Amino acid sequence: MTNQKSTGSYYTPSYLASFISKRVLSHFENRTRMSILEPSVGDGAFISELDKEENLNINLTALDINKVELKTASKKWSKKTASFEKVDFLEYLTEKQFSVVIGNPPYVKKNILTSKQIELSKEIHANENLTEASVKNIWTTFLVKANTLLAKNGILAFVLPSELLQVKFAEEIREYLKTEFERIEIFTFNDLMFECKGQDTIVLFAYKKAVQKGEFFTNILSRESLEKNNFVLRKNNLLVESNVKWTHHFLTSDELTFIDNLKKELKTVNDYSDSKPGIVTAANKFFIIDKETEENYNLSSYTKPIIQKGFFVNGSVVFNEDDIQKLEKNKRPTKLLQLNENDKISKKLREYLDIGELKQIQERYKCKIRNKWYVIPNISEKPDAFFFKRSHLYPKLLKNSSNALVTDSAYKVKMRNGYDLNSFIYSFYNTLTLLLSELEGRYYGGGVLELIPSEFKKLPIPYKEISEEQFEKFTSEFEKKTNIEEILSANDFNILNPTLGINNEDLNRLTDIRNKLKKKRLRN
Length: 524
Prior knowledge:
It holds the Pfam family M_Eco57I_C. With 524 residues, the chain is an alpha/beta fold.
């Protein structure tokens, strides 16, 4: 799939366009004519499939902001009943109501939209009694506007990012869909349906009128199962009525109730600690340098040690000075260029700053609003511990026994009075908390798990106090492990039984649920 960041174009594979088109048209098998709107035709994948329909008289309205793509798509339509119009869908005006709105809307974040598009999006959302908070990406506005153009028995069929199911700003959109449509169908996929790095997608079918009402979910295991209609749509009322992300629709009501009852008994990360995002440099590749660059420009008096990525600290629950030295030897960037307002600029430092200015780093928004573009604000003392917001096999919480700072790839953790850091880190590594990390967080293509600040703060932890000797033993075992499951097997009963009264049967159940969630995220 071609990915065009400026326009947010993610082109739909023909087999997926075929499945969506056939499913929509089958709903109208007793009709002889219908009207279809495609608000962003792209390469015309849906038009090619709709053109194959011989039993229906389709009146097609096709829009796109790109004149070249619109012309290419128009050549894929052989019938007379169609109009192709070059227009931004946000500006499109019509009194017509359509039987179907179908397509793959662009995915463009708000900060890339023009000021006109942002204002139009706000107006479209406001007209539907939606808040400005739901205007985060243009696909949400396409979804809202598409609904307003549907006939009273119409169908909406869109390829969308999985954000719809899991991110905070989409909660309002999900509620909106539930009130506007009698039936919603969500198709998630084990494989990335598009050859596009990092873009996880779903398919949404929304019916204005339906005999079987409600929200239905299915997970497609392969392209073959999609093409052969080898799937079952199931309701999950508890999921829809709760705050659980819709990505977890494959969990049963019993499983969700079991987890929820355990959560109620626990305090959260925010009860035990204060956490804040790490340092925002605005240009990590410039402000975080390796030892060689530091020496070449005589910058040692201006630098402090820093951890740039969670990828650099695999394998332990303690980060110390030896770890910094190892990263240096491996030529990782470990030096933060920390300049102050009153620093004298040496000749060699000036040479390095000139390199940054040639790259126009001073023009970046976060640099531009500083008094001096190269002085990074809000650099606090080294954190006691850090939690990396993105992870792969499992989330990482580490004690900081070094002098290193950390970038905003992590949250800085400081314990509240009455709680012990070693015990907090030990308590974190149990099956229930890692399971809840999967539930509370969101995931992206490639299996990346992310917890935003609010999700990390509300993560429940069964806290168990341990001694210094116990923590040293835990640290040693963690470093020797071959996988995280070894640690969970050793920790689970010691943490979860005294805090929650969990028995071996409950532990097995939690393990099965976590494995199910992890398998879905990693597409194993």
